[in-house]
Structures are given as structure tokens and as C-alpha cells.
Amino acid sequence: MDLENGVSPLCTGLILVFSLVIVGKALGIEWGLGAIAVSIALVFMFSVRYLKRLAVELRSGPGVRSVPTIVLGAGYLGANITRQLATDPASSYWPVAVIDDDPEQCNAQVHRLRVRGGVADLPDIIAETRARALIVAVPDPAPELLSRVHDLVQDQDVQIKVLPSVNELFQGDVRKVDLRDLKIEDLLGRVPVDTEVEKIAGYLTGRRVLVTGAGGSIGSELCTQIQRFAPSELYILDRDETALQQVQLNLTGNGLLTDSNVVLADIRDADAMKRIFGELRPEVVFHAAALKHLPLLEQYPAEGWKTNVLGTFNVLEASRLADVETFINISTDKAANPTSVLGHSKRVAEKLTAWTGEQTGVRYLSVRFGNVIGSRGSMLPTFTWLIQQDKPVTVTHPDVTRYFMTIPEACQLVLQAGQIGRTGEVLILDMGEPVRILDIAQRMIDISGKDIDIVYTGLREGEKLHEELVGYDELLERPFHPRISHARVEPMPVSMLDFADWSERLKHRA
Asked: Where do the TM regions start and end (predicted)?
């Protein structure tokens, strides 16, 4: 009921009663009669307006084709979503029940819907309401909650929808319910680490920054995050012209490729690196260019040597000659106790980075992390494609596990390393518990609703059953952040670079 619309009639009634108090006796009218009349009039007026509003809401509610929907979350966000869905004629979802695990919300009313229980009651509530969709209206829900919900409804023919984060939701139109399907990334069981990069990435502001491998998944996200800190120049370097165009589109809104900040070059070309770095004079360098597909490098180890080892040295040497102040080499967990060509080549790159830092006295360091969710050519996009094509999902071994992190989180760690990392170190993010690949494959198939087989192909040459983040001989400390470990890397002088010797060592690897 709109009280502000009742203010005027109330004022009129009070004036009438006040007038009767003064002149009522002279007219033979008791002032109490006026008070009763005003009260009855107000009750009647509010009742009419309430019934009118109720009729409007019922007429403006979801159409007959709307999907019966349960809303998980009776808080502010859930209440708003429920009201919006219930009063939007164009809504595809019709709220039929609200649930919440908070005992204080038990039997509360959310837009005329009673809170009917918690997550554990989902199967019964779905059966009673015949709901076909469930909206998780909880701010930034934990993976454990989403996994629990998914397990309870996976046999119920119920769609699970989630909302963007609270910041994303309310930066736009609050009246618009922007729902998306549940993704495997939501279920991986790991809460991203807040690296607080906003507080310490000021070393980028006003500086000339260069990113190698800028067209890759990590490189492109790095460029996006670096741009937020207003560098004086941001140079994007890659040998893939199409990838460079896409990065430029993301950064500037155009892909004209006429900007001198877009650099087409190959890190294998030592002379080109020295010339480019000499001309651009970058102050901060993020080295993300690398070959990363383990099976291919097992077949073509020389290619891993040329890019991951010699290419890294070319960038390091060009950085040294250009007086770069901060150099961050992006490594991989496969460099810890390496057993593959990829791991061995990236381990040498870490050692070369430490040696250059030792020679220059400048901050040269590495950052090591595990599998990045959704990166180009990684496991999740491959599984997604196989499922879309109704092809069997291939898993190397039923017990194989891997560490996972999101692309933005990986890039935040890289940016933070430039501030808190020390010369010759490798920084390692606490990545929680490793995840079994078979579980991911099964969940992705469940989400798709398809009947897809899983085929075991066997571990590939050089591949570990369980990845490691820390080498046997590495001592960890956490001097600056409780979730970021620092370890010293043994420097390797460039004089020790010998492909023949390296190849021989590969033959006798563990």
C-alpha cells in the first residue's frame, strides 16, 4: 500500500475532525462521528488500492509458458530476484518456492512465497511444486554449495541457473535478471584466493610495460588487467597476428593493427628481440610466450628447447640490455620435479631467469601455477567440444589429478609477483586440493544431460599421475601473503646451455 498516496486524504480527514471539534456542537454533530467516518474512508480507500495493485501484479506476472522455478536464497538478492521474476510478463521463470539454509529465514515470506526449507529439502520441494528450474540467488556461492545442489537435482530434470557476482549484477541494470547456466568451473571445489592485487600493483602505473605471448589466454588477460593500472605504454608482443588483433580489440575497441604498441615478432629471433626492446625500452616485462602442449613437445623436444629455453634467454638478454627493472617469467607446475620435455624446458627457463637476476641485481623472478581453467587448448574446452559433438570424453587415467585456477586469478598472482617477489625466486600460489579429472568429466557430462561414454587412454610419455607445485629441494616461505609461497631457484648460467647435453639428460629422466 502506498502511504504517500494516503497522506492527502488523511490530512483532509484530520482537518474535518478538527473542524467538528470546534463547530460540531453548534451544528449538533459529534466530532467522534467524523473520526469514525474518516477511519472507514481510509480503510476502504487502502483496500481498494491494494486490490487494484494485486490485480495489476497478477496480470503482469509470468506467462503460461514460464518455467516453475525454485529460488535458493531468501536474503536481499533472493527477494529482489523473486519479485522481479514474479512481476515480469516477459520472464521465462515463475517462482513457486523459496528455500534457504538459514534457520532464521524458516517460514519467512518472500513476495507472498513462504520459505519452505533448506537445500536438503530440494527433492521433496521439487516433487511438490513440479519445479523445472532452480536459481541460486546467493552472492558468490561457494563451490561446495553448488556441488551439493547439483548432486541433489541432477536426476530431477531441473535446470540450475546462477547469477553473476554481486558487483557485476548491480553495476548494470538492477531490474534485469541476468542468469547463466551452471558451469563446471563453478563446481571445481576451490574458492579463488584474493591476492589483493589492487593494493600493490602500483609499480605498473606510468610505466612502459611489455607482454610477450600477449595473444594467449594468460597473456591477453594480463594485458586487460595491466591496462587498469594506467601504464604509460602497454606493448603487446606475439607471433600470431590474429591473436594480436583480438587483444587490441579487447583493449582499445578497434583492431586496425596500426598502433606501434602492437608488436609482431617471434621470441626465437634474438636479433629482433634486442632491436625491439632497444627501441621500446620497456621497464616491466611479463614473459608469457611458451609452447605448452606436453604430448607434442615429447615428440618434438627441439621445438620446446627453441621456444621455452632459447626464446626465454633471448627475451632475458634483450631485457638486460634495455635495462628492464622488473621481469616476471610465467612458469608451470610441471617445472617442479620435471618428468616431461615441457617441465624440463620450463625449469631451465626458471633457472635462466634467476641467473639473469643474479647478474643484473634487478628483480628477475618466476611465477608457477597449475592448470588454468578455460585457457586455449586446455582440458575443459576439449571436454566441452567432445560433449557437444556427442563424442566419448577421453581421460588418461581414472586416478589422475590436477591443480586448477581461473585465468583472472592466475594473472592477479603474476601481477602481484612483480611487487612482492624477490630476485631469483619462484612464487607459488596455494592452489588448494588437486581435483580428479574423472570427476570433472563426469560432472560435465551430467550438466550436459547427455549420455556420453568416458574412454581411458593411458598416461602419456612424461606425464605424471599427480602434479606437484614444489620441487624436492625447494624450501618454502611466506613472507608477504599467507597463500603465496616463495622459493629460491638455483641459477643456471647461459654457458651451460647445451641442447645435446639437455637431450641426453631427458633420456635418463625420472
From this structure: 6-24, 31-51
Q: What is the DSSP string of 8-46?
A: HHHHHHHHHHHHHHHHHHHHT--HHHHHHHHHHHHHHHH
- CATH code, 67-182: 3.40.50.720
Give the span between the Cα atoms of 379 and 463, in whole angstroms: 14
- Which range of 25-39, 104-118, 264-278 scores highest in mean pLDDT? It is 264-278
Compute, in degrees rounded to 10, the torsion defined by CA atoms 469, 474, 477, 483: 0
Using alpha carbons only, what angle is made at residue 483 by residues 478 and 488, rounded to the nearest 5 degrees? 40
> One of 161, 292, 306, 334 is an active-site residue; which one?
334
52 catalytic residue (yes or no): no
Whether residue 190 has pLDDT greater than 70: no
Residue 176's pLDDT band (cuts 50, 70, 90): very low
Range among 16-30, 152-166, 272-286, 430-444 rated most confident: 272-286
Q: Is 9 exposed, middle or buried (0-12, 13-18, 19+ CB in 10 A)?
A: middle
| Grid cell listed for 150 | 547439483
Residue 174 has pLDDT above 50, yes or no: no
Fold of 202-370+405-430+468-507: Rossmann fold (3.40.50)
**What is the model's pLDDT at position 201?**
81
What residues does each domain of the chain span?
A: 3-52, 67-182, 202-370+405-430+468-507
